[in-house]
Write a structure and sequence with these properties.
This protein has a 5-stranded mixed beta barrel with strand order 1-3-4-5-6. It is built from 5 helices and 6 strands. The chain has helices at about 30-40, 120-140, 145-150, 160-170, 175-180, and strands spanning about 5-10, 20-25, 45-50, 65-75, 85-100, 105-110.
Length: about 180
């Protein structure tokens, strides 16, 4: 069975696996994508970024071929007509086939990306080193949230740790997209 879901293009947000984000949508296309994903796609969709920095999506070729599979945790229609949605990133996915549906929405077939596998000693060494780097970074950067130390304290999975750190630090969208591509 092929994995096919709808695509939601995010221009100013990068969602990493194991991260939650609350977004509010006012445009009809985004609302339709959310609604169809909830009722016809088990509340799942694929989040992607546009390739160019302005976010102008003119064709399927303008969409990054790596995205994040996301689960819609909740959706609330606001009094102003906007749709407030909480999304949870679950895993990176590689888009292998994209097509535009009759409704104008984009549907993709995807495959889960493969992470580098480390032996237990290597992974432990890398996670310790990464946590020490975060401690040093927090010491010299007053803008970095100190809560990050507590958030990552008991995380032992290197991939999850890296994503949590990347999501928490104040990088621009281009740099976050670059980090997302690092599997």
């Amino acid at each position: 069975m092929k994995n096919r879901l709808l695509v939601l293009i995010l221009q100013n947000v990068v969602l990493f696996p194991n991260q939650d984000v609350k977004l509010e949508f006012s445009n009809d296309i985004s609302k339709k994508i959310i609604e169809e994903s909830i009722y016809g796609r088990d509340s799942e969709l694929v989040l992607v970024s546009p390739k160019d920095k302005e976010g102008n999506v003119l064709s399927l070729a303008d969409i990054e071929d790596l995205g994040v599979l996301a689960k819609i945790k909740n959706s609330i229609e606001m009094p102003n007509g906007n749709l407030r949605v909480t999304l949870r990133g679950t895993k990176r996915v590689h888009l292998v086939d994209m097509k535009t549906l009759y409704s104008g929405l984009i549907e993709v077939e995807y495959e889960q990306t493969e992470s580098t596998v480390y032996n237990l000693d290597e992974e432990l060494t890398y996670t310790k080193k990464l946590k020490k780097l975060v401690d040093s970074y927090i010491d010299v950067n007053p803008e970095c949230p100190v809560s990050l130390q507590g958030l990552i304290k008991n995380v032992t999975n290197l991939s999850k740790l890296s994503d949590m750190i990347a999501a928490s630090l104040d990088f621009n969208i281009k740099d976050k997209n670059r980090l997302l591509k690092e599997v």
